[in-house]
Amino acid sequence: MTSPEYRIGLGHDRHRLVAGRKLLLGGVEVPFELGLDGHSDADVLLHAITDALLGAAGLGDIGDWFPNTDPQWAGADSTVFLQAALSSVKERGWQVVNLDCTVHAERPKLSPHKAAI
What we know:
By secondary structure, this protein is of the alpha+beta class. It has one domain (about 15-115): CATH 3.30.1330.50. The chain contains three helices and four strands. It has helices at about 45-55, 60-65, 80-90; strands at about 15-20, 25, 30, 35. The strands form two sheets. The protein has a two-stranded antiparallel ribbon with strand order 1-4. A two-stranded antiparallel ribbon has the order 2-3. β2 (about 25) and β3 (about 30) form a beta hairpin. The longest helix is centred in the C-terminal third of the chain and has 14 residues, at about 80-90. The radius of gyration is 15 Å and the shape is globular. The termini are far apart.
């Protein structure tokens, strides 16, 4: 009997909180006076998931695919990154079996937004 092959990807991302930006987590805008600074929309949760998927499939990392030096990704919606990674992973015959994410933040309180995220 053969066992299915499993791979584990670990994604990580962080951005500074700054004034004048929206706070997006998991594609959801969280009301807060500060937002995450970054080249794209700076959604750290979607960036970490994207990075984990690419890494698990041996496809490099988010910086290889969507470099912050490329103007075409300036202000980009991070769901585009996630969709591209997921499509590439599936095209190579992989499937996502489990996903667990942790966001480290003292504020804002994220509990009221968990279901939407």
